[in-house]
Design a protein that fits this description.
MRET, 11 strands, FNR_nucleotide-bd, Rossmann fold, six-stranded antiparallel β-sheet, transmembrane helix, elongated, Four Helix Bundle (Hemerythrin (Met), subunit A), 47% helix
Length: 439
Amino acid sequence: MIPALSAFIGILALAWGLNVAALDGGSASLPWLVREQGLYLSGLLAIGLMSLAMVLATRPTVLERPLGGMDRIFRLHKWAGILAAVFAALHWLIEMSDDVIKSLYGKAGKPAHDEFGGLYEMLRDAGEELGEFAIYLVLAMVVLSLWKRFPYKFWRHLHRAMPVFYLLLAFHAAVLAPPDYWTQPVGVLLALLLAAGTVASVIALAGRIGHDRKVQGVVTAVSSPVPDVTEIVCRLDGAWRGHQAGQFAFVGLEGFEGSHPFTIASADHGDRSLTFQIKALGDYTRQLASRVAVGQAVTIEGPYGRFVLGRQDPKARQIWVAGGIGVTPFLAWLDALRADPAAAPAVELHYSTRGAAHDPFIERLRSLCAGLPSVSLHIHDRADGDDLTPERLAATATDGQRAEVWFCGPRGFGDQLKAGLARQWGRRLSFRREAFEMR
């Protein structure tokens, strides 16, 4: 994610820099010139990143392979939006610095305000007013997005206004960009970004995001193996295109609540049946078992994701690590491997649980692994002090052997394992994880 965002910001800054290099500063003094160019650069970065966020919000499956999956696309969307808000706030602060520079350096050397007259001048005035209004709304939306305690069902509906805010800011950028931009590379880049963001906004406002990947179905079974886990089985209609073990889908059971992403916990057996194991992590998921009934209609959008069986490196030692509800993609992997146990790779599967005595997944894991002799299952019961640590994993390594770790579980647990194993194995380690955070 960081390399992709850094490269994107670098391209924007380079286009701005090429324009600056071709400028004739004229009689403008340095403080006023810095303010003017700071205003242009911050505005370009803000609208560029917001355009990127809007495009990524449409769930472009064509970008899953280069970016590593839809989970990473959503994380990139989130941080592009956050950085866009940061640069928009900086843009506003630079705009407000006019009086400060006047008091320190005077008005001498201030670039002359371009007078266009007619309709264009009216559009620029409108763009300035609308842009300032939209910046306040975007900043408020980012705050609500980061405030995880704000209910998702309300946030989802507020978030649907973002395309409107974007269109206001795109209009602001288009009419207030320096006229000489449109004959420079920076203008071409800005035009492409505004066009892409506008198309994405129209798709979002028309309710077409993921439309071609939505299918209807019905709930065929609901159960709660333990109080904080709900198992839902769905059967979909003939439009379902199938899935790879480890992918996820957006599950819509109630109109106002909207769709939520859940990993598919079963392999594709060709019967259009999907199983979801859903952990009670919020108000909606805690009440799910009592709100869903057999025969209820369901909308499934997907499948998405690149955390799939078949992407493993056959030459590397395979270590699969699951923490809590992060076991769901591995349940699907094991289910898929049972179709041809002889072809299953040699795997060490480590499952970390807070309490094995009441864990609903342990028997399921043991049952699946019983038919897969090449899979070695290790249960780590934290209630008994059996914590899974990087040192324990590293202790079983063979000198010089490359290891590929596939991890799904709590972020802190994954960060700890990755950092510890990187110290032990260095370049011999390949750590792959699912960045399953959509908000």
